[in-house]
Amino acid sequence: xxxxxxxxxxxxxxxxxxxxxxxxxxxxxxxxxxxxxxxxxxxxxxxxxxxxxxxxxxxxxxxxxxxxxxxxxxxxxxxxxxxxxxxxxxxxxxxxxxxxxxxxxxxxxxxxxxxxxxxxxxxxxxxxxxxxxxxxxxxxxxxxxxxxxxxxxxxxxxxxxxxxxxxxxxxxxxxxxxxxxxxxxxxxxxxxxxxxxxxxxxxxxxxxxxxxxxxxxxxxxxxxxxxxxxxxxxxxxxxxxxxxxxxxxxxxxxxxxxxxxxxxxxxxxxxxxxxxxxxxxxxxxxxxxxxxxxxxxxxxxxxxxxxxxxxxxxxxxxxxxxxxxxxxxxxxxxxxxxxxxxxxxxxxxxxxxxxxxxxxxxxxxxxxxxxxxxxxxxxxxxxxxxxxxxxxxxxxxxxxxxxxxxxxxxxxxxxxxxxxxxxxxxxxxxxxxxxxxxxxxxxxxxxxxxxxxxxxxxxxxxxxxxxxxxxxxxxxxxxxxxxxxxxxxxxxxxxxxxxxxxxxxxxxxxxxxxxxxxxxxxxxxxxxxxxxxxxxxxxxxxxxxxxxxxxxxxxxxxxxxxxxxxxxxxxxxxxxxxxxxxxxxxxxxxxxxxxxxxxxxxxxxxxxxxxxxxxxxx
Length: 618
What we know:
63% of the residues lie in helices and 4% in strands. By secondary structure, the protein is mainly alpha-helical.
């Protein structure tokens, strides 16, 4: 048994056995959900354990070139894999999230007619992700890339009414992006050998220096631009984001928590990082384009999220906004910015997945995804409320959660540019965090803390309580938000700092840019630019909690001396009346009435193709 494990797993990435089990899951989808559920957990567990084994073995890239070797008309079509720290990190996180979403779906999708196929698609999507992240050349990457796209389209087609429209738009945009990727690969075959790197062989060589785009002439710029379009469309950056809100229309919370919201973003950013760090070195113009797109994505998507009345669409736009921080960090070209952007990629996958799972629990309890028709769920779903609040604080950049640490590193990367653009990006990033926080204040109040409508299922206190099976995955992800916030060096120092190339002309000094300074929780410093200490932040937060608790106690003491009466309604008692119910969606109505925002961003008929406004959608 030990020898079999060595041959199938330790000797090479377990991609063959994972692919076989994924195909078997699809074939057994007619047998019953239990079969595909078991295979989904087995494949995700296998990939996760192998990823931990790789981290335990060391930091050197592992290359496997003995899979096959084929030459066709002078083109090397060899299929081999090259596992790097960054690729293994993405595949390990994807495997963990796949297992978590699968466990959540045991109860959330129980009895659903498409349940069996869902787990098969989930398994094959993870296999495609591993092929991309473990690929040794662009051809292998393209195979995994298309496999994930196919699983996404199939999963969306299995959705509710209106899902096929979203699947069609998804196919159109991602098909265009995939065509750009394929064209870039074809053009790369024509590139000459440059600085010891044979780009025409399409191989990823992690130990070589990236080729400067300008040295390759116009073809180099075209190839890099095509790869950039493919990566940004898959990640969902503006203006190539429209397929994600369309996909969310009919998709289940389980599907959103993994495919459109997590795996596609991970793959898009992974392609961008691998191309920009290991293959091409973008010049200053390309870096500015990347940072400007990131800044616009942060602000525009933040405003769009704030304007939504549908919970799934609000989460989708907030998730899109997070992509902007990653682009800004990578676009800076500095070690601290790149580490911050890649760390934010991992963090946004964690709390983004948790927020989509929260939306599933809230939607089932309320019977709707319309925020105006929700309310009073804090007592019925206490675990969902607490875990959702933690993830909302993390995505909003509230310390000491993980989202703050990665955003703070991105801020440091922008400041290290020492330019007006860096300051403008810093302002946009901080403003985007404020928009995200405002949108989640609306969500948490509307769904959990406000009074439910009289005709809402949430008003029935005798209905079912929290489903612990669906709450357990949320607890794990919420705990990850806290752990990665208190111990960020587990990712920044031990993995990401070792993963990015250390070329002086490409990056600032890595060893001095992000280092650990010790402390109770392991503080980090960014080469003199700034210092983040979780222990100090925790102490200040605890002081604030104690002070806030004291104010609540004082408020209760004062209220005991006041006489509380019903509102006067011209002689009517107002029993069962919603006229005095305060809606969270009205918190920011004044902002949306500004002429510029109303014309450019806040169109209520929000391009869904169904003629309904956000207020009307459920």
